[in-house]
Amino acid sequence: MNGLENHRNFLKGHLWDQWDALERDQQKGLPVPLPQKPYGGDETFVDLVAQKDFTVGSIPLINALERRRSCRKYTGESLNLEELSFLIWAVQGITGDSEGRRTAPSAGGRHPFETYLAINNVEGVKPGLYRYLPMEHRLLIMGRSEGLDMKVVEACKGQKFVAKGAVVFMWTALPYRAEWRYSLIAHKMVAIDAGHLCQNLYLACQSIDAGACAIGKYKQDKMDALLEVDGVDEFAVYAAVVGKV
Description:
alpha+beta; seven-stranded antiparallel β-sheet; 8 helices
């Protein structure tokens, strides 16, 4: 039972008692972590539809909440670029003000995630692996490898429905973005924040006649390797499949 108790303690608030006494990196004057992982100068990109140009997503919130379900069966119909742009923006997009606030809440505004996408069936976007750049609202092309859909299935411990969706969202955490401010508390904040962004995806899907299914069951090493992250300073924490229903 001790093992379970230790994990339960992760959910409790007792660490706040220690937090006030800690000298955190923010207090030490160390540099603020970048809000977006940098990239080189020779990448190629996919421009997304801007929020001001969205014509999708306008249904009453009460209807989206009533219809929200985890969906594992999809019609095979493709998403279009505007629908994909809307879903990505709904999850981690900038809301237009000068302070870089986003659509999903995050403790202390730290936003410790990067959003990766395995695109299978989106009109005008070649299948492949992409990373979302929220500061620019565009996709960085990481690769268009053959058999990506089955690589994602393998990383998700053989869940075959994962390959049937139009796109798979995969999120990594960069813990130091939160640790810089919250130290020992940061990891609980990261876990809470992950729920915020995935719920945004669920509700946004309802407004475009799509469905989502969140995935917490995955092979850590396989997912980290797929996303080309080091598994230490950045590692996979969550995923979700999206498709038309």
